From TrEMBL:
Gene3D superfamilies in the record: Glycogen Phosphorylase B (3.40.50.2000)
Keyword vocabulary terms for this entry: Glycosyltransferase, Transferase
Record's keyword annotation contains Nucleotidyltransferase: no
PROSITE patterns: UDPGT
InterPro entries in the cross-refs: UDP-glycosyltransf_plant, UDP_glucos_trans, UDP_glycos_trans_CS
Superkingdom, taxonomy of origin: Eukaryota
EC number(s) stated in the UniProt entry for this protein: 2.4.1.-
UniProt keyword Transport, yes or no: no
Record protein name field: Glycosyltransferase
Family: Belongs to the UDP-glycosyltransferase family.
CDD domains in the record: GT1_Gtf-like
Length: 483
């Protein structure tokens, strides 16, 4: 029996991170039969939809999901320190991971998959301290960076900067020159860790500084999408080899067949490229005042729309948004009657299925990286309305650097703890962006560019394409670890 190379994948506990890791794992296994993967799951106290997602996946012969969760009470206690929670939570799983690898995968024995040898650890960008375990088992580690190359470049830029100077951009209106960006970058839309030195930013950049200890960085992107950022990193020589491999987008919708059928039936009745789709990701939701402004904008714009409207979790609670029992409670009076036939308001929506539908002509998005890639690969232009994490940077990248999106408001920040009232984006701003996004014909430069990038995305995955080649180089590197 041939000895297989076994990889240990460790994603962060968020749904976007787990789903991306699953997609890249499936792509690797589909490409080479000499590999098998154990994907380790750490259950977050709030779950964020990870368990239903995992339960919805069909089984695959060389991929297993292993629960390495710690005691829920211990996990919940770690939540009290918000600055350190994610890092302490992941660090708290080290003994469980070590135990699993020691008992199930050793260098020369039969594992769950037959005869295997441990070839390496593939670690999420936040699971960096698991490098210690890879070292302990004498195998290399790789980073799976779930955001884009531009964010990696920005992170490495500020990691180097903090070693040479003290900076504070928390109140700054400066335009900065940052690695990976052609255009001056506004300090006010920097991701939180890069704004000033805080306990949480120190933790983040301590993690980034360890990237250079790894054997390679796998990025969820493709070379034609971010050529400037990739070239900047290659020229700067501050990172290990980079493998830009954009996996095929995930269209598995789990157990929500009924909702999906009703949405598709409605879309089937709409003309091509006529519908604007509004959806704000796993954690995206708005307060009633903001919901009303979006409704007014949609009604005034006159465009057909499909709106995934979600109820925010209770103030201060770390929970997922939920569906409204009755959305009329937050919508302007009579809105659903007046927009009947041209609009559809839903709760959860099957994002990839919707974006792939020919009726959809524009996407109002929070610019999460998974959503960004899905939109580009489906050829749908974006109206950028970022909420949190690195989404403001993604919006800047899409609007200013790549010309693949129009702006709703790039410097909008959502405060999850409800401490500060967030700005309300006016109906006028939203309506203006929707009209620009959905404009017909030659004047819509953004639509033209997105269609070109969609074609680049398709070619990248085909034989001889950039992602195809990058993936095979990575796999040969994995195999070399056991030979």
């Amino acid at each position: 029996m041939e000895t297989k190379a076994e990889l240990v994948f460790i994603p962060s506990p968020g749904l976007g991170h787990v789903a991306s890791a699953v997609e890249i794992a499936k792509l690797i296994l589909h490409t080479d039969e000499r590999l098998c993967i154990s994907l380790l799951i750490m259950k977050h106290p709030a779950d964020f939809g990870v368990q239903p997602y995992l339960q919805s996946l069909p089984s695959q012969s060389r991929l297993r999901f292993v629960d390495v969760s710690i005691d829920p009470k211990t996990a919940a206690q770690l939540l009290s320190n918000k600055d350190r929670f994610l890092y302490d939570f992941i660090d708290g799983h080290k003994h469980k991971v070590s135990e699993f690898v020691r008992n199930n995968i050793t260098s020369n024995s039969s594992s769950h998959f037959g005869s295997t040898r441990l070839a390496g650890f593939v670690l999420d960008m936040f699971c960096i301290f698991m490098i210690d375990l890879a070292n302990e088992f004498g195998v290399p580690s790789y980073i799976f960076f779930t955001s884009g190359t531009a964010f990696l470049a920005l992170s490495l830029h500020f990691e180097a900067l903090r070693n040479s100077s003290s900076y504070d951009y928390s109140e700054s209106d400066e335009e900065l020159s940052i690695l990976g960006f052609k255009n001056p970058y506004p300090a006010k839309i920097l991701p939180r860790p890069a704004k000033s030195v805080t306990p949480s930013s120190i933790l983040y950049f301590n993690g980034i500084s360890r990237f250079k200890e790894t054997k390679g960085i796998i990025i969820n992107t493709f070379a034609e999408l971010e050529p400037f950022a990739l070239q900047s990193l290659a020229d700067a020589k501050i990172a290990p080899p980079i493998y830009p491999i954009h996996p095929l987008v995930n269209s598995e919708e789990g157990d929500k067949k009924q909702e999906t059928e009703s949405i598709i039936k409605w879309l089937d009745e709409q003309p091509n490229s006529s519908v604007v789709f509004l959806c704000f990701g796993t954690l995206g939701s708005f307060e009633p005042e903001q919901v009303k402004e979006i409704a007014i904008a949609l009604e005034r714009s006159g465009h057909r729309f499909l709106w995934s409207l979600r109820r925010p979790p209770p103030k201060g609670k770390l929970e997922m948004p939920s569906n409204y029992d009755n959305s009329e409670e937050v919508l302007p009076e009579g809105f659903l009657d007046r927009t009947k036939g041209i609009g559809k308001v839903v709760g959860w929506a099957p994002q990839v299925t919707v974006l792939s539908h020919p009726a959809v002509g524009g996407f109002v998005s929070h610019c999460g990286w998974n959503s960004t890639l899905e939109s580009v690969c489906c050829g749908v232009p974006i109206a950028a309305w970022p909420l949190y994490a690195e989404q403001q940077m993604n919006a800047f990248l899409l609007v200013k650097e790549l010309g693949l999106a129009v702006e709703i408001r790039m410097d909008y920040f959502k405060d999850f703890e409800g401490k500060n009232p967030v700005d309300i984006v006016s109906a006028e701003e939203i309506e203006g962006a929707i009209r620009k996004l959905m404009a017909d014909g030659e004047e819509n430069e953004v639509r033209k560019r997105v269609k070109e990038m969609q074609e680049n995305c398709r070619i990248a995955m085909e034989e001889g394409g950039s992602s195809y080649t990058s993936l095979r180089l990575l796999i040969e590197d994995f195999i070399s670890n056991i030979s």
